[in-house]
Design a protein that fits this description.
Strand content: 15-25%
Number of strands: 23
Largest sheet: 7 strands, mixed
Number of domains: 4
CATH topology of the largest domain: Cytochrome Bc1 Complex, Chain A, domain 1
CATH class of the largest domain: Alpha Beta
Strand order of the largest sheet: 12-13-14-18-15-17-16
């Protein structure tokens, strides 16, 4: 049962109600299910989130597990070729056509192939009857009547190979090796959707068509539509354009996904089978093992789902204890236990362990000890009630917010349910089943389900290590067969800490000033202690409140000599607790509540962010205010953050894109150390004492802005604000030097970075400086249009024409809170030998845009999707909060928002040419390339080296 979603009210198990055969899960009447005479199944419902959009999913029950050895990669290749040439779309027309209809390629228009299915996804805005008809016409041609030509295959295969290269690298090799081990003997072990170089290069129109004819059939296809249109009109379109599709030949037998096999002579109580050690540089030390069982199709009944809830409760209890053990000084940085039904191939219980240091055996011993304790004796009723409270909020929040469920998410729920051969249920049904199940959550039931989760056909384990330490597969096996020592020291307290036990933060403040902004009822407040606030009580998203706290000076307030403590604060600050409340106690407070403790660093402010609900608003604000007013400085979170940062650094050169992401922010801020990823030398200097020295004054710096947007009564939101942030002591204004927001000097010779990933992969970036600050807000939006036009041209040049890159990108960055530092950047991943082609292409595109205006059609392909994107996003509170952050301190941001739609959707070819002539000059460009370490000259392959070529 997939949730949240909604279901049909037709008779369970009927021919039309195909999803619910054998199920007694209650259904509602929002979904209409049906089957055309040719066998196509459909599910259709009205949904108005966002308004005037429809979300279409066409699911073909055929993925990479359906391929023969000679066809590896064909299911995914066909996904590409359907966008290349089809009955109603000539070669190369698909992407421009969907863009003109308002759909952005890659987000609104996309497809994905797994081992078990291929799903085509379309989210189309501004729907009209005419667009609805055109949409289904085009989709029918793509799915039922693609055209496979020699030119099409010759063009698309290099693009797929580019995608293969861009996804390759150490992490991919580890994932592939893990699948090969855990699912040995099954198609899941080796049938990656991307295929192989050999089979893809051998593909022909005839061989690809043979796979399509066999599996792309109406009786193997499901169409799901959720959107702001009449359901019967959508059904009529499905019938009109797909009803005439006829299958070629008899339906083939279902593909056999195989079953896991137990090793001969294995211990039935602990059937450890294959084990393996993988040495992969740039990948963290990690131990993973799986208890593997055959996948079985279950009737998706209420009783079955109640059993799944007990399974989930058992796993939640173990994972909570694992966290408590880690925080108390365990030998692992992170660990988790999860149950997964993998691709209709295996039912698995997965255990993942990341050691705190290099002693992986001790870490595995620690985690297995926690699991052994859960297997030996039942949990207490207090333990169960704690997890049940978490379940209650997890199931209740979707009930409270179901009016805001997007049609795209509802459509995805159906495709997921079809893939795993289960049903969907609406939030009310899920919550009702949960409440009905409460008597079943007994200590003995949890113990029995825990034991079942750790029984299986075979246990398989893998150690991944960045260096050859001498560990062997036999060592891995020994760690799994060793008798674990029960860890009973992580029992949680029986009495749960409550907010009623916490002290007040001070005397509640009062409203000193209240100003109506004139935008959507948003008001700007000043409290008696100087705290500023934006309040917008509205019911646009029932049951949801977005909270954002901005305070202090951000990265600008951190001294460059203390730069390492910026990212460590991002990782550890919220883990250190507040007052007398440590991180475990914070979890106690959060039990059964919808809280978040997100923290991030901005250029000129620090931010707390949360997504909460009306019942939890006051206590959510208390958590954030207490962090500022009563900070706590537990050392263990800092120790763990340093260990995590070391792992992050170790992986930072594992691919060209990883190396570029590691260094580009630092380089584009003219090597300001506050934007640099901490390296081992910097991490060696970190102490908990210095962490406190740096962060304690930063938390005390003013000013504070509190933004509350969402479903709350104004008087309740105001009272919560006054009792929490209004009770803090007045804060001194922050005085920080401005950030150095200068880009590096222009250079025709690229700066060279190196990576330690695959030798046939590289990355590059060309950057043109622009500007920054609110004074240029209108120009910044026009630059976004220009960037998208350039993006389409770069996409055509690097992907469509020469197949050198899968997803080249052009973006415009304009910092609103800094006077400079903005840029337009073109980024690409490709083969090292294609780097000259990229630099030539970017120079040509920039020069052409400066010399000749783009066509009106080029502009329309960009402005229509941008217009629709803004129109859809503006129906939610997050859109306005993202634009108005800091608006309580800088009221001019309210004026900026008035022109956003016009700025993004209207321009002229001449305006675009003028911007290009001003900014996209070759003599202003800065270049960087990332090449394999062996080709980097004097770099020595060390991550972070930035030598000049």
């Amino acid at each position: 049962m997939v949730s949240p979603a909604t279901t049909t009210g037709t008779t369970a198990g009927s021919a039309q109600n195909w999803l619910y055969a054998g199920s007694d899960v209650p259904q509602d009447k929002e979904w209409i299910f049906g089957r055309l005479p040719n066998g196509i199944r459909y599910a259709v419902r009205h949904n108005g989130v966002p308004p005037e959009q429809i979300s279409v999913r066409v699911l073909v029950d055929a993925g990479s597990f359906y391929e023969t050895d000679a066809q590896r990669g064909y299911a995914h290749l066909i996904e590409h070729l359907t966008f290349r040439d089809s009955k109603y779309l000539k070669s190369g027309e698909a992407i421009p056509t969907w863009q003109r209809l308002g759909a952005t390629f890659g987000s609104d228009t996309n497809a994905e192939t797994s081992g078990t299915q291929t799903v085509y996804k379309l989210d189309l805005p501004a729907i009209t009857p005419a667009k609805l008809d055109e949409t289904f016409m085009l989709l029918s041609g793509m799915i039922a009547a693609p055209i496979f030509t020699p030119a099409g295959v010759k063009t698309e295969v290099p693009i797929v190979l580019a995608e293969m290269r861009e996804r390759a690298g150490p992490q991919t090799r580890v994932m592939d090796a893990t699948r090969e081990l855990f699912f040995a003997g099954q198609p899941a072990a080796t049938r990656s959707p991307i295929g192989t170089v050999e089979t893809l290069q051998a593909a022909t129109p005839a061989s690809v068509k043979a796979f399509h004819d066999k599996w792309y059939r109406p009786d193997n296809t499901i169409i799901v539509v959720a959107g702001d249109a009449e359901p019967q009109a959508m059904i009529a379109q499905i019938d009109k354009w797909f009803g005439g599709w006829k299958a070629r030949g008899p339906k083939p037998a279902p593909a056999d996904f195989g079953k896991p096999v137990a090793p001969k002579g294995a211990d039935p109580a602990n059937p450890v089978g294959e084990t393996r050690v993988i040495v992969e540089p740039s990948v963290p030390l990690q131990f993973n093992y799986a208890i593997v069982r055959p996948w079985k199709k279950h009737a998706d009944t209420i009783a079955y789902n109640q059993g799944l809830m007990i399974d989930r409760l058992a796993l939640a209890l173990i994972n909570r204890r694992i966290k408590v053990r880690a925080r108390a000084g365990g030998s692992y940085l992170d660990a988790s236990v999860d149950q997964q039904n993998y691709a209709r191939s295996a039912d698995t219980t997965m255990v993942s362990v990341t050691p705190l240091g290099n002693d992986w055996k001790a870490a595995v011993h620690d985690v297995r000890g926690v699991i052994a304790d859960a297997l030996a004796q039942p949990p207490s009723q207090a333990d169960i009630e704690r997890e049940v409270a978490e379940f209650d909020v997890a199931f209740k929040v979707p009930v409270e917010t179901q009016r805001t469920q997007a049609g795209s998410a509802l459509a995805d729920d159906i495709t997921q349910a079809v893939d795993i051969r289960e049903t969907v249920a609406n939030p009310d049904t899920v919550y009702a089943i949960f409440k009905k199940s409460l008597p079943l959550f007994t200590p003995q039931a949890v113990l029995e389900h825990t034991r079942a989760l750790f029984r299986g056909t075979v246990v398989r384990g893998m150690l991944t290590t960045p260096t050859d330490t001498g560990a062997t597969a036999q060592d891995v096996r020994a760690a799994l067969v060793a008798q674990p020592v029960l860890t009973t020291s992580i029992r949680l307290p029986g009495d749960k800490l409550t907010f009623a036990q916490l002290p007040a933060l001070g005397v509640p403040g009062t409203v000193k000033e209240d100003v109506q902004t004139g935008i959507l009822g948003i008001e700007r407040l000043t409290l008696s202690n100087g705290v500023k606030a934006l309040l917008w009580a509205n019911d646009a998203e029932p049951g949801r409140i977005i909270v954002r706290i901005r305070f202090g000076g951000g990265l600008a307030a951190i001294a460059p000599k203390d730069a390492v403590y910026g990212p460590l604060g991002n990782m550890a600050l919220m883990e250190t607790g507040f007052g007398n409340v440590d991180r475990n106690a914070m979890d106690e407070l959060a039990t059964g509540r919808k809280f978040a403790l997100d923290f991030k660093l901005d250029d000129t402010a620090f931010e707390f962010d949360a997504d909460t609900r009306p019942a939890d608003l006051k206590d959510q604000l208390y958590l954030f205010a207490a962090k500022l007013g009563q900070p706590r400085w537990d050392p263990n979170p800092i120790v763990r953050a340093v260990a995590a940062a070391r792992l992050q650094w170790a992986a930072s050169a594992s691919s060209p894109q990883a190396a570029l992401q590691r260094d580009i922010g630092y380089l584009l801020k003219d090597r300001d150390p506050r934007y640099k990823m901490p390296d081992p030398a910097a991490l060696d200097t970190v102490t908990p004492q210095d962490f406190r020295r740096v962060w304690e004054p930063l938390l005390a710096q003013g000013p504070i802005e509190v933004d509350l947007f969402g479903d709350f009564k104004r008087e309740d939101g105001l009272a919560a604000l006054e009792a929490t942030f209004g009770a803090l002591a007045p804060r001194a204004p922050v005085a920080t030097p401005p950030l150095n927001a200068h880009l590096p000097a222009p250079s025709q010779t690229p700066l060279v970075l190196t990576h330690t990933g695959d030798a046939d992969t590289a990355a590059a970036m060309v950057v043109w400086p622009t500007g920054g600050g609110r004074a240029g807000v209108h120009e910044s939006r026009q630059l976004e249009i220009l960037a998208q036009i350039a993006n389409n041209r770069l996409f055509d040049e690097m992907r469509e024409k020469i197949g050198a890159s899968y997803a080249p990108q052009v973006e415009s960055v304009w910092p609103m809170d800094l006077p400079s530092g903005g840029y337009m950047g073109a980024t690409v991943q490709l083969r090292p030998g294609d780097l000259p082609a990229f630099f030539t292409a970017t120079d040509k595109i920039a020069a052409d845009l400066a010399e000749s205006p783009p066509t009106s059609d080029e502009i329309e392909r960009v402005t229509e999707p941008l217009k629709q994107l803004i129109t859809r996003a503006s129906t939610g509170n997050a859109f306005y909060m993202s634009l108005l952050g800091g608006g309580a301190l800088e009221p001019g941001k309210f004026d900026d928002i008035r022109s956003i739609l016009a700025d993004y959707s209207h321009t002229t070819p001449q305006a675009m040419q003028a911007l290009a002539a001003r900014y996209l000059r070759q003599d202003r460009a800065w270049r960087v390339e990332v090449v394999p370490a062996a080709k980097g000259g004097d770099t020595g392959g060390k991550p972070g080296d930035v030598p000049v070529k």
